Automatic annotation (TrEMBL):
Residues 1-31 are annotated as: Disordered. The lineage of its organism: Eukaryota, Viridiplantae, Streptophyta, Embryophyta, Marchantiophyta. Residues 133-186 form the HTH myb-type domain. PANTHER family: GB|AAC33480.1 (PTHR47430). Residues 1-10 have a biased composition (Acidic residues). Gene3D superfamilies: Homeodomain-like (1.10.10.60). Residues 133-182, 186-250, 252-305 form the Myb-like domain. This is Myb-like domain-containing protein. It comes from the Eukaryota.
Length: 352
């Protein structure tokens, strides 16, 4: 929620940013700025064709770099001119222009406003307008804001324009903060809790691998279709660190040798539970899995034991610890992660 003081501060910023029309001539110019034929004559006709948020990104004839004072002035005038054309209050209308997801009545506004600068992309004009007019919150980030930033990044990816509509920060500020957060990822020794979470997130990623197709132009090296980007963001460890700890500490080398599959850990532990042996010596390894020999099953069990933090405990305790890490559902525990998702164009999008 925005406090009354923040609201007053935003009003002050808005009043400073607003272009006042002191005469009928100024008012006429503001209304016509979106269709200023004299100004438009200096630009080639090609700049007015096939405009759009995504289409502009592919164009090579648009200008980048710093905005001039004249360009800033035109953006501000164009925003207020558009609001007047739609009979919208300027104060509320400016907020609506930067929250188009919440306000369908202003959708498409930036395609119109972008006419004021034909040689700039719609996205650049939006970003500049946001900086000039929106009056977003600045200063130190609270822990609640940082957590919200992580959640919005997971849900919307690099679409900071959309993410900003659910935050008091601008899309550019969110983007810049995220870059700094990525640099400030955790370092040092992994904790037992982190290993358990890593296992849980890998299980989640493997569950969705059948929903996601591999793109032909994707040059990433992918093992088991594990989404290391999302896992990295959840654990605040780098993708490389997460992958290294999984493949060199938690995952079995038997998988790369073709002697073990990702689902076999769960099957092995379930069979050990049902076997009911009181010690490792009493386990009949050859009878645990029909499609795996006893030597392979016992080898994987020994690998699991080496991952335990308390190794010198009875067999039942070792089995319980392994179940908690690799198959918690078998002992009635809910998995430590429960992520809702949908697949759009081959990409995993997190949903609430």
């Amino acid at each position: 929620m925005v406090s009354e003081e923040d609201e007053e501060g935003n009003e002050e910023k808005l009043s400073l940013a607003r272009v006042e029309s002191g005469s009928e001539e100024d008012e006429r110019r503001e209304k016509n700025i979106l269709f200023d034929d004299e100004y438009m004559k200096q630009f080639p006709a090609s700049l007015f064709q096939n405009r759009g948020w995504k289409r502009d990104q592919k164009r090579t004839d648009l200008k980048n770099g710093f905005f001039s004072e004249e360009e800033d002035e035109r953006i501000k005038r164009a925003c207020f001119a558009w609001l007047r054309m739609k009979n919208l209050d300027e104060k509320d209308g400016v907020k609506m222009l930067f929250s188009t997801m919440k306000h369908p009545e202003v959708r498409g506004a930036w395609l119109d406003i972008a006419r004021c600068l034909p040689d700039r992309s719609v996205k650049l004009i939006y970003t500049r307008g946001e900086r000039l007019l929106a009056g977003h919150k600045r200063g130190k980030w609270s822990q609640e804001e940082l957590q919200q930033l992580r959640e919005l990044r997971l849900k919307y990816g690099n679409n900071w324009k959309t993410a900003a509509q659910y935050s008091e920060r601008s899309g550019q500020l969110m983007k810049d903060k995220w870059r700094h957060m990525r640099i400030e990822t955790k370092r040092g020794r992994w904790t037992e809790s982190e290993y358990n979470l890593l296992s849980a997130y890998v299980r989640w990623s493997l569950r969705i691998k059948d929903h996601v197709g591999r793109k032909e132009n994707d040059r990433r090296i992918i093992r088991d279709d594990i989404n290391w980007e999302i896992i990295s963001e959840k654990l605040l460890r780098t993708s490389a660190s997460c992958a290294h700890e999984w493949y060199h500490r938690l995952a079995s080398p038997l998988i790369t040798e073709g002697r073990w599959a990702n689902g076999d850990d769960r099957r092995l532990l379930q069979s050990l539970m049902e076997h009911g042996a009181s010690s490792e010596e009493a386990v009949d390894w050859d009878r645990l899995l029909d499609d795996r020999d006893g030597i392979t099953c016992e080898t994987r069990w020994n690998e699991m034991k080496r991952l335990l933090w308390s190794r010198y405990v009875p067999f039942e305790d070792k089995l319980e610890q392994s179940l908690r890490r690799f198959a918690p559902d078998l002992i009635g525990q809910k998995d430590e992660v429960d992520i809702n998702f949908e697949v759009i164009n081959g990409h995993v999008k997190l949903v609430e």
